[in-house]
Amino acid sequence: MQCLCMPGYAGAQCQRCAPGFYGNPMVIGSTCQPCHCHDNTDPNMLFSDCDGLTGECHSCMHNTAGTHCEICGPGFYGDAVTARNCTSKPN
Predict the structure, then answer these.
(1) In 10 A of CB 52, how many CB atoms?
(2) Bridge-partner residues for 71, per DSSP?
(3) Which has more pLDDT, 90 or 46?
(4) What is the phi/psi pair of residue 65, to 5°?
(5) Closest CA to 30 of 50, 55, 12
(6) For residue 25, what are the CA distances in angstroms to 13, 20, 35, 65?
(7) pTM for this structure?
(8) Are 21 and 8 contacting, i.e. CB atoms less than 8 angstroms apart?
(9) What residues does each domain of the chain span?
(10) CATH of range 1-90; options 2.30.110.10, 1.10.10.10, 3.40.50.11030, 2.10.25.10
C-alpha cells in the first residue's frame, strides 16, 4: 500500500524527505524542510542539490560557497545571495 504523502515527503509510508527537501521525518518532531541554496546550484536539476539529512548544499555554482551557497568562494567577492555577483578579486 502506498500512502499519499504531503509535499516534501516521499516513500511508501512517507518515511523520508523528497528530493529538494531535507530532514528526518522518522524522528518525532522533525519535519522535511525545503533546501535553501539561494538559486546557486545547477538550474537544470529538477530539485536543489542538498544533503537529505543536513540540508547542506552540494555543487555550489556562480563562484559561491558555504553551507547554503550563501557566500562568495575563495578568491571572489560580492553578494552571493541577492545580487549574485561573485567576481574574481583583482590581482
Answers:
(1) 18
(2) 65
(3) 90
(4) -155, -175
(5) 55
(6) 11, 14, 15, 28
(7) 0.80
(8) yes
(9) 1-90
(10) 2.10.25.10
- Rounded Cα–Cα distance for residues 80 and 73 (Å): 9
List of residues 6+ apart from 8 with CB closer than 8 A? 17, 18, 20, 21, 31, 32, 33, 34
DSSP 29: T
Gap between the Cα atoms of 14 and 68, Å rounded: 25
What are the pLDDT digits (tens) for 18-42? 999 999 999 999 999 999 999 998 8
Amino acid code (one letter) for 59: S
Q: How far apart are CA 90 and CA 14, in angstroms?
A: 50
The C-alpha atoms of residue 82 and residue 33 are separated, in whole angstroms, by 21
